[in-house]
Amino acid sequence: MLWTTSLCLLWASFVLGAPVRKERQKLLLVSFDGFRWDYDRDVDTPNLDQMAKDGVKAQYVTPPYLTITSPAHFTLLTGRYIENHGVIHNMWFNTTTSVKKPYYPTQFVNEWWDNGSLPIWITAQRQGLKAGSVHFPGTASSYQGQVVMNREVEPQLYNYKNETAWQENTDMVMGWFRDQDLDFVSLYFGEPDGVGHRFGPDSPERRDMVKQVDRTVGYIRQSAHRHGLTDRLNIILTADHGMSTVFRNGMVEEIILKKIPGFLFSDLSFHLVDYGPSGMLLPKPGKLEKVYQTLKGAHPHLHVYKKEEMPEHLHFANNDRILPIVLWADPGYVISGYFPVQFNQGEHGYDNLEMDMKPFFRAVGPAFHKNLEVGPFETVNIYPMMCHILGIQPEVNDGHLDATKHMLVTSVTSKGGNINFLKNAFTGLAAVAGFLAVVFIATISLKIIKRKRKNESFRSESFEDVQEKEETKQTSF
Ligand SMILES: *[C@@H]1O[C@H](CO)[C@@H](O)[C@H](O)[C@H]1NC(C)=O
Ligand SMILES: *[C@@H]1O[C@H](CO)[C@@H](O)[C@H](O)[C@H]1NC(C)=O
Ligand SMILES: *[C@@H]1O[C@H](CO)[C@@H](O)[C@H](O)[C@H]1NC(C)=O
Ligand SMILES: [Zn+2]
Predict the structure, then answer these.
(1) Of 398, 393, 364, 349, which is closest to residue 75 (Cα–Cα)?
(2) What crossing angle do the helices spanning 2-16 and 420-450 adopt, rounded to 10°?
(3) Does ligand 3 lie within 6 Å of residue 162's CB atom?
(4) Using a 6 Å CB cutoff, which residues line ligand 2?
(5) Within the chain, how many helices (H) and strands (E) appear?
(6) How far, CA to CA in Å, does 405 sit from each of 260, 396, 411?
(7) Strand, coil or helix: what is 125?
(8) Ligand 1 pocket, 144 CB below 6 A?
(9) Beta-sheet strands, E only, within 284-324
């Protein structure tokens, strides 16, 4: 099939009298951790505003649940819901030994990240492209033995808010695109998540940080220009989740599991709480029903679910790593175990339907429409769009190009000249041909059977043919 497709492409380039591939478009995916969709409403953001004029702005996007950093970033890189990619938490844990690793050391636990889904860097590299990543969650790990070609992993105790370092990293990435001809780079900034946690999303500190983000957006575009990349480079800005103000100073009744009548930590063999508004429990054998009944309805702002009863929209159930009981709180609350140990003014990790959890989305470049504002979409849909822009075949994923393609100019081919359009056309033709072949063969076979004639070689050959066509259809966009 591949052979036939190449022949067809060769034929097409010959007949159309044009080279199939000119310059491939490049793509930079930038994440500003915890940049809520409405953070530009109470701050002057001239660079973000200019970018919206020159490109596309979504009203907001919907992150996957659990709305925390590593899981949500891995969804951007794979297009899979968290239950499907397996990076279900920022923390690696072992329920037998009760060992838990915090966010940073978990970046280096390969088995945690490499759980069956390939990030776009590896897919791009396998299809002949060059990829890079700076500080993006998942960068430190290898996937089926491969790592992203150019990578920078931040040191431990990194100062995530240093604007000079942001500019240096931006220039380094633009250098990779220009001098090493990289096709795709993911670039991560740890703010405004940090100030959002520490001071809250409504604080002057958060507004100042949004100004810094805005200056950096201007810097990124200016650096792209300086490196001669404006005509070839697409830039997507988004984030992993939003931020919500936590009720403090005795304003509300806190959620402390120890205080719930009848609840015993000794009924659990493992728990993951004291981590914002979410938690997971593994009851001891025979204790699940007791723990569940004790907690369910115990606090008006605590949601208690058995894994198999989890609401469908969260897509957070179908994975062995998710523990049998899942807890989450309403906005404003966090879940504590024995006593309160969390003092952040802002938190995320809430239900992804909460508006406070929605990140922003902007995009600019030759693949995108100009001055277009679009409605919301789920962040799983960013992955198939990125693959489309890069002209690579996506892995199995939970997104749909249909949800994002209205942001793209009709044919990415027309300017960037990547092979997507032709490939799609021919895959489409092949699918139609395949379908006709199936109908044809079925008819013929029926006739043959009716006539009770034996022709084993013809039938086995046609069966393989049909299988091949089916596979082509399944892997097309
Ligand atoms: C957890 O620890 C136990 C005991 O050391 C070990 O047998 C098991 O493989 C570990 N599980 C994971 C997922 O690391
Ligand atoms: C994913 O991780 C689980 C353990 O957490 C393991 O049992 C499973 O085999 C892994 N799957 C893949 C495809 O790596
Ligand atoms: C900020 O980053 C620059 C460039 O990497 C470095 O020279 C400077 O010391 C850093 N400043 C702080 C306060 O971390
Ligand atoms: Zn985050």
Answers:
(1) 398
(2) 130
(3) yes
(4) 86, 115-116, 320-321
(5) 15, 20
(6) 49, 18, 10
(7) helix
(8) no
(9) 302-306
Give distance in angstroms: CA of 440 to centre of ligand 4: 54
327 and 355 in a single domain? The answer is no
* Same-domain status, 367 and 467: no
Question: Phi then psi for 51, rounded to 5 degrees?
Answer: -65, -35
3-state DSSP assignment of residue 411: coil
Choose among 149, 103, 97: nearest CA to 122. 149
- Report residue 249's pLDDT band, with 50, 70 and 90 as the boundaries: confident
Does 3 reside within a domain? Answer: no
Please tell me the total count of domains within the chain. Answer: 3
Q: Which atom of ligand 1 is nearest to the CA of 97?
A: 2
Cβ(156) – ligand 1 distance below 6 Å = no
Residue of 135, 152, 161, 162 with the most ligand 3 atoms within 8 Å of its CB, for mutation: 162
Closest Cα to atom 2, ligand 2: which residue?
A: 115
Report which protein residue has its CA nearest ligand 2's atom 10. Answer: 115
At 326 the pLDDT is 98
Specify the residue with its C-alpha closest to ligand 2, atom 1.
Answer: 115
Do 268 and 125 have their domain in common?
no
Question: Is 12 contained in some domain?
Answer: no
Q: Which range marks the domain in which residue 330 is found?
A: 255-343
Of the residues 80, 89, 97, 320, which should be mutated to test ligand 2's pocket, given the most ligand atoms within 8 Å of the CB?
320
238 has catalytic annotation: no
Q: What is the model's pTM?
A: 0.84
Residue 358 lies in a domain: yes
Q: Is 97 in the pocket of ligand 1 (CB under 6 A)?
A: yes
The CA-atom distances, in angstroms, between 233 and each of 109, 225, 229, 238 are 32, 10, 6, 16
Within a 10 A sphere around the Cβ of 313, how many other Cβ atoms?
12
Whether residues 109 and 199 fall in one domain: yes
| Domain end residue (candidates: 321, 343, 365) | 343
Residue 123 lies in a domain: yes
Q: Which ligand is nearest to the CA of 137?
A: 4
Q: Which of 69, 75, 216, 294 is catalytic?
A: 69
Neighbours of 372 (CB within 10 A): 15
In tens, the pLDDT along 145-204 reads: 999 999 999 999 999 999 999 999 999 999 999 999 999 999 999 999 999 999 999 999
